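pinging the channel bc i need a second pair of eyes. not urgent but kinda urgent?? the chain im working w is below, pasted from the shared doc
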Amino acid sequence: MATLSCASADFEIIEKSLRSTALQLMATLLARHLNADTSDGEAPTIPCPCGGEARLAGRRGKEFVTAVDVVRLDRAYYLCSDCGAGFCPRDRQLGLDDSVSPTVRRMTGLTAGQLSFERSSELLRELAEVRLNAKRVERVAEAVGREISDDEQQVIEVESCGAQTIFVGIDGTGIPMRSSECVGRKGKQADGSAKTREVKAVAVWTAQSINNKGLPMRDEGSVSYNAAIESATCGDRDTLPSVFARRVEREARRRDVYRPGRRVVVIGDGAAWIWNVASELFAERIEILDLFHVKEHLWDVAKVIFGADSDLAGQWADNRCDELDRGDIAAVKDALQRHAEHHEAVRKCIQYIRNNESRMQYDRFRQMGLCVGSGVVEAGCKSVIGQRLKQSGMFWTVRGANAIIALRCSIESNRFDDFWERRAAAGNDIK
């Protein structure tokens, strides 16, 4: 065994050495090939992005990180007399943003979309021998996320499906922010200040599958996500959709929600902004208040009425939940009314039910074959947003968080490859 172990260790050392040598050779050949082409410096003047005219000011060398190794390129450098900016058109042609190749950008976006910037840096080095420190990974990943965000707003490719019913889940979740991003904002701290900002999220899915209880369940691979820290309040004196409503509309168009004959079901908790967004976007819709939120309210009220450790609280809550499942909302309200005089929490729960009664017809919704829970979008808030942006020690800017959120949504909605195909088609990317 000792001999085998030694041989294995020796093989690993040899393998790594050969790989490193091969990558260095490939990098040398790549640099030689690219530097042999000096056509980017043939024109004495070229248009500047500012609209002015840029003049050739010689050639400049710079190192770029590629998937094979660091490559030093010699490029024509142009200087604009109007805006004073200098640039190398070859960098743009090859997609060498942030001094990394498109492949490295893609690898960085994929890893940093799943892991912390520090862990992403370690993974790139371990698996691909790509050496970017955590700060550089952050800069590249956020740049990719902003590209994806811009692409999401400009490109809507319809993803048609045969399901008659489309579910739209809307929810929000708070993420930790830098103190500068929370100045003047109201929050849940003892002094009324905030340490978090709310990410508003939409999930769209189909549920033609049936579980072993005969209830509809999310179809595998049918969920797409879109989210950002942005306002759900209508703009321009309530005549324009909110910023978040426009995001929901784009996602709905991608998922072909507006196709004639489609049945649209909007599921959310009791937040008023969710139903306001739904009313802005979907003239014909079925609104469903998440069943589990209602049951959670009833359990909280039961503890207020009978005490947290009382067996009566559990029995009372179970009975009310059974009535909800049967669609007997009148019985739920009657049971609550008996305790309304003595508890403010009970009175608030009664008002909550009255405000949402039309959204609580759970027996009828189930007979229609509809989902009655917002578990899909809540799970998305946890997995897409929380697992990446709520890790210990993380504090975000709005700009940085929205970039990583866009990256996460693209990956989890299986649109990441589509984005890179469009990006490659628009340029002349190298590896």
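so The mean pLDDT is 91. and The radius of gyration is 28 Å. — does that match what u expected or am i reading it wrong
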